[in-house]
Amino acid sequence: MSSSKVPAAENTLRILQYLATRRGPVGAGAIAAALELPRSSVYHLLAVLERNGFVLHLVEEKLYGLGVSAFELSYAFERQEPLARLGRPLLASLVDRLGESAHLGVLQGQDVVYLVEERARYRPSLATDVGVRLPAHLTATGRALMAALPPAQVRALYAGPQTFPTRTGKNPITSYGALKEALGQVQRLGYALEQDEVTEDFSSLAVVARDHTGWPAAAITVTFMTHRVPEDRWAQILGAMHQSANELSRRLYGTGATTPDPGV
Fold this sequence. Notes:
Number of strands: 8
InterPro entries: ArsR-like_HTH (IPR011991), GAF-like_dom_sf (IPR029016), HTH_MetabolicPath_Reg (IPR050707), Tscrpt_reg_IclR_C (IPR014757), Tscrpt_reg_IclR_N (IPR005471), WH-like_DNA-bd_sf (IPR036388), WH_DNA-bd_sf (IPR036390)
Strand content: 15-25%
Strand order of the largest sheet: 5-4-3-8-7-6
CATH superfamily of the largest domain: GAF domain
Domain HTH iclR-type: 6-68
CATH architecture of the largest domain: 2-Layer Sandwich
Shape: elongated
Keywords: DNA-binding, Transcription, Transcription regulation
Structural class: alpha+beta
Pfam families: HTH_IclR (PF09339), IclR_C (PF01614)
Mean pLDDT: 86
Low-confidence stretches: 259-264
Domain IclR-ED: 69-254
Distance between the termini: 43 Å
């Protein structure tokens, strides 16, 4: 039982949060059971949400899903650029701590789009400026994000050899089989690594920040000149990156859900 002073408001939000975690519409009974609410109360709240466009009632199927108003809230969330606004100070702090450049990226189809770049002092400029798109399979950012997706979704993005362009000629991923193997390694290690595939003599490490449903929201990536950062320093870098990614998740969604730091 809720201890809130406004239980109707809290339970309305709980219903919306529950629907947002489902892969498709669900029945009122399932909502009531999952949230441990009286079915009559759930029906009343769903009716209010439906009248205001936040819930869509599929009458023939007796199911409820999110409505247009909920989509508009999501669009407004993106329009206000919360990832960039909250990510920028976190990346600035990470760069100050590590002395290497960092960026924040999201997945859009087969591409990674970079939202924030923080360059460390005395470090060269990178190919990952704000707004730049790069093929996701080439980048640590893209691999970190795709490793957190269902395999069927990744497979749908890569239909044939033409979907695996190269940049420096050193990219080992030229088929779905190679990509699947690389993403499996990311899942085992808890981070993604790219070396010389975007820019020669540069390496990148990436970790994913997840939303409240466990879905990959963004990736934090640190890029450095390969010869300047020995592998025995990666554990320190990855530890700081996981802390930043968890903090980004907490600020955005009230949770911290990156892949646990594996202690490289």
